[in-house]
Amino acid sequence: MAIHLSDIAASRVQHFLENRGKGIGLRLGVKTTGCSGLAYVIEFVDELQEDDEVFETKGVKVVVDKKSLVFLDGTEVDFAKVGLNEGFQFKNPNAKDACGCGESFTV
Amino acid sequence: MALLQISEPGESSAPHQRRLAVGIDLGTTNSLVASVRSGEAICLPDERGRSLLPSVVHYDGNQVLVGYEARALQAVDPLNTIASVKRLMGRGQEDVTRLANVVPHEFVAAEASTVPRIRTAGGDFSAVEISGEILKCLAQRAEQSLGGGPEGVVITVPAYFDDAQRQATRDAARFAGLNLFRLLNEPTAAAVAYGLDQDADGLIAVYDLGGGTFDISILRLNKGVFEVLATGGDSSLGGDDMDHALGEWIVEQAGFSDIDAVLARKILIAARSAKEQLSHGDSATISIDHAQPWQAEIERAQFSDLIEPLVRKTLSACRRALRDAGIDKQEIAEVVMVGGSTRVPLVQTMVGDFFGRKPMCELDPDQVVALGASIQADILAGNKPDSDMLLLDVLPLSLGIETMGGLCEKIIERNTAIPVARAQEFTTFKDGQTAMSIHVVQGERELVSDCRSLARFELRGFPPMVAGAARIRVTYQVDADGLMSVTAEETTSGVAADIVVKPSYGLTDQEIETMLRASMDHAREDIEARMLREQQVEARRVIEAIDAALVQDGEALLSESELSAIRLKRNELEERLESAGSDELKQLIKAVEQVSETYVARRMNASVRQALAGKQIDEVDV
Predict the structure, then answer these.
(1) Alpha-carbon gap: A1 to the closest alpha carbon of chain B (Å)
(2) Which among B216, B254, B224, B458 is positioned nearest to B342, based on CA atoms?
(3) CB-CB under 8 Å, A90 with B3
(4) Which of A3, B130, B209, B363 has the smallest C-beta neighbourhood within 10 Å, fewest atoms?
């Protein structure tokens, strides 16, 4: 079971954590909302929960709860620029179908 | 594929419901838009990586251009290109006419509307619409950068902006189709950008030296709440003056004579470029490509000598603001630098020496206000958990009401933190009075004629009562954006009237300063004038009361000689009403009261007798 960050995603996460001045890592997860069933969660982590799994990748602690991990295993998180916009993207091998916007998906 | 941002723990929102929010610094020369992304406030750049948007709008009949493109057309098409529109915000026809000599634009003579409009090839536009175009352009940039339109915006305004100027800014946001969370004072935004709201309580000075304006604000942070204690500055002092000072030096050194517009422009451009080089290096090369080419080196120390008087001027404004806030400069905990001209090393050193501490200049001084606004917008959009940051602003000038004799009674004192509501009770002056005119004024002086009129309305239709019996409660309310509503209610009958103040014209910071200074310079004569007016009002009341009584029972209760004695004193008072000083009037009023003493006593007895006539003693309620 693993989650990967691209080089640029890892360096952006480190930058944002440093800028925020607190937090132990990056939480990735899914929740059951959205137009296609599941939606991604990407948050700062201040404290670990009981059922959290922690991966260390490229100097960043990635925190995923066990339930989400089922849907996220093998995901690579990238950071991309499209036009003036920029942000994190999930490349998730578990996702069968995503809504047009890519903010939610089904497995 | 969606581009996601990192949220605060537990604050992830459902897809398509991300609470996007931006902060906008709507500046005189340049404007910026910023947003908090993955916890970091950043200014959003355009396609070419520029975060500044020149606050210039060009209308040519087919399209509206905003920013660099519009600015490029300023020289070729000045009449259809509008710059520095912020100076016209909230201004009425009168103010604009005064500016007509300064700006090239043709103003449409307004009859029906009091809002002045600028005539261009594309039509006639008000300052609100022109500012709205700048906001639209920034909102569009935000939409492209954030992947969706912002749910709400925070727009910054100078701390000295009055109600009219704030309202105009609000209207511009509405014109641009933006949901305005709130207006935020520029110095407060700068302090927020530095995270000073998270710091210990204390006093903060915000030193804002832009291209053409200088503002100093003294803020107090108290339990996470900012209050503006005082503002000051100079609306015509800035980096441009440094360019001019250096320009004069160039002219002197190069021995240029016959300076035409082209050469003058070249000199100023060279001066500005040298100034910018000297912010980083110890010396700069100035070269002027002209019929008589010229080149020279300038040391930073030489440049510092040239601009020292300008910086000194800003420091005396700082001193005044400190005095106005009633604090000592040693009490200032932090000094925040805002505006491009604070990059000049001499400015940083002199400001640092003045306040005795190193000023904060780590953030880009051009961006710091927009960054702070975006942090506030992010909180207002609900992207931060348990955030209790509430930003407070203060009123720049007192709000008062006109009372009898043209006196100004202050209802909310200046520097009161807003939002605020204050009420005061007034009563009628004449018997049978059924209406009252409410005149809302702004200013520090004692006489209404020396203050600024904001609004006038009437409370009508309350039942007639004897003078002094009606209870009219006047409530002044100022919301978080500094906009004001006034309610008047006669409480015994419940008759009420209200008004929302959208004053038709504004004041410049200089005028506010002038008004403040005038209130201090004229303090003594104002108090004297007030006392005189009060005595005059009292004298008129006494004369009216005497006249009314004499008509009723003067002849019945008074002998011929008593009557003429009272009349004599009454007439003396009336004669001297307009010309006497307050002490003399007081004496004359006293004289009338003394001579009428027995008359008043007899009237009292007569009315008691009348009330008791034909009644047994046990029938009388005591």
Answers:
(1) 23
(2) B216
(3) no
(4) B363
Of chain B, the percentage scoring pLDDT greater than 90 comes to 33
Write phi, then psi, for B83 (nearest 5 degrees): -115, 165
User: Burial of B544 by CB count in 10 Å (0-12 exposed, 13-18 middle, 19+ buried)?
Assistant: middle
CB contact under 8 A, A82 and B3: yes
CB-CB neighbors (< 8 A) of A42 in chain B:
4-7, 12
**Spatial distance between the Cα atoms of A24 and A17, rounded to a whole number of angstroms:** 8
Q: How many helices (H) and strands (E) in chain A? A: 2, 9
- Distance CA(B21)–CA(B609), nearest Å, equals 77
Q: Which of B151, B171, B186, B393 is catalytic?
A: B186
Has B86 been annotated as catalytic? yes
ipTM for the predicted complex: 0.85
**Cβ contact B10:A95 at 8 Å:** no
Cβ–Cβ below 8 Å for A15 and B6: no
Q: Catalytic: B25?
A: yes
CB-CB under 8 Å, A46 with B16: no
Mutate to test the interface with B, among A43, A68, A75, A91 (most CBs of B within 10 A): A43
Length of chain B: 622
E strands, B85-213, are 106-108, 117-120, 123-126, 152-157, 180-185, 202-209
The answer to whether the CB atoms of B145 and A16 lie below 8 A apart is no
Measured CB to CB, residues of chain B less than 8 Å from chain A are 1-12, 14-16, 37-40, 44-47, 141, 144-147
Nearest residue to A87 (alpha-carbon basis) of B3, B7, B149: B3
Residues B214, B321: Cα–Cα separation, whole Å: 12
Say if residues B238 and B210 touch (Cβ distance below 8 Å).
Answer: yes
How confident is the model over B245-295, as pLDDT tens digits?
999 999 999 888 888 878 888 888 899 999 999 998 999 999 988 887 889
Query: pLDDT, tens digit, for every residue of B84-125?
Result: 889 888 877 766 666 655 566 777 765 545 678 888 888 889
Query: Are residues B9 and A83, on separate chains, in Cβ contact within 8 Å?
Result: no
- Whole-number mean pLDDT of chain B? 85
A88–B3 C-beta distance less than 8 A: yes
Strands B56-59 and B294-299: unpaired
CA B309 vs. chain centroid, Å, equals: 28
Whole-structure pTM value: 0.65
**Closest by CA position to B222, among listed B195, B202, B199:** B202
Q: Please, which residues have CB within 8 angstroms of residue B196's CB and are 6 or more apart in sequence?
A: B204, B221, B334, B336
Q: Which residues on chain B are in Cβ contact (under 8 Å) with A22?
A: none
Measured distance CA(B493)–CA(B80) in Å, rounded: 56
**Omega within 30 of 0 (cis) for the link into B419:** yes
Q: Which residues of B touch A41 (CB under 8 A)?
A: 7, 12
Distance CA B414, CA B444 (A): 8
CA–CA distance, B453 with B137 (Å, rounded to integer): 35
Q: Which tens digits make up the pLDDT trace of A14-35? A: 999 998 888 999 999 887 764 5
Is residue A13 within 8 A of residue A6, CB to CB? The reply is no
Which chain B residues are Cβ-neighbours of A45 within 8 angstroms?
9
* Amino acid letter, residue B452: R
SS3 state at B282: coil
The alpha carbon torsion through B25, B132, B160, B486 (nearest 10 deg) reads -130
In this structure, are strands B399-403 and B393-394 parallel, antiparallel, or unpaired? unpaired
Residue of A nearest to B35 (CA): A85
Q: Is B542 in a helix, a strand, or coil? A: helix
Identify which of A44, A89, A104 has the shortest CB distance to residue B15. Answer: A104
Question: Six-digit token pair at B119?
Answer: 């005539």
Residue in A27, A43, A89 nearest the CB of B3? A89
